[in-house]
């Protein structure tokens, strides 16, 4: 029985990290936000709950994506003599880390609005604020689910490249 090469191990680590990040990100839109949307809590309280979940994800997911970037980058570097395989691993790396610019570029407005609401006083909540918060959470959920596709695509390309060796 032969041992897997360091390139294969790196590719597997990148695939695992990218897939895990994608699933964790998607779970927020598919599980957490729908649960928040069923609540009758005031807008600022909902926004604080969202902010708590968001801040935990913000601390973890870029690190996981960064580790996948390093793993795919190593696999890409090691594969440079094998035709286009290095480009495929490089693409997987880029797609996985794309959650960072996607968040900063396309989600910062919604994130900022929700963070502002989270900082609001609980007693100041009214029906309009609660409705606004729910609408922002729905918009955030859609953007977040879209964001989860980047590392999923990275994992898929990494797996396709690894299996195709």
UniProtKB/TrEMBL annotation:
Keywords from the UniProt entry: Membrane, Transmembrane, Transmembrane helix
Annotated InterPro entries: Anthrone_oxy
Membrane topology: Multi-pass membrane protein
Annotated GO CC locations: membrane
Transmembrane feature ranges: 12-39, 59-77, 89-107, 145-163
Keyword Transferase listed: no
Localisation: Membrane
First-listed, main subcellular location of the protein, grouped into a coarse class: membrane
UniProt similarity note: Belongs to the anthrone oxygenase family.
Protein name per its UniProtKB record: DUF1772 domain-containing protein
């Amino acid at each position: 029985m032969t041992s897997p090469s360091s390139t294969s191990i790196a590719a597997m680590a990148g695939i695992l990290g990218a897939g895990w990040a994608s699933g964790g990100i998607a779970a927020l839109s598919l599980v957490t936000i729908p649960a928040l949307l069923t609540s009758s809590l005031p807008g600022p309280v909902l926004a604080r709950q969202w902010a708590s979940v968001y801040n935990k994800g913000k601390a973890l997911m870029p690190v996981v994506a960064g580790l996948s970037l390093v793993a795919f980058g190593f696999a890409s570097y090691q594969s440079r003599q094998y035709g286009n395989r290095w480009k495929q691993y490089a693409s997987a790396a880029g797609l996985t880390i794309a959650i960072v610019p996607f968040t900063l570029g396309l989600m910062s407005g919604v994130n900022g609005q929700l963070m502002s609401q989270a900082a609001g006083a609980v007693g100041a909540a009214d029906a309009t604020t609660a409705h606004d918060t729910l609408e922002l959470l729905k918009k955030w959920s859609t953007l977040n689910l879209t964001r989860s596709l980047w590392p999923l695509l990275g994992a898929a390309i990494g797996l396709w490249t690894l299996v195709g060796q």
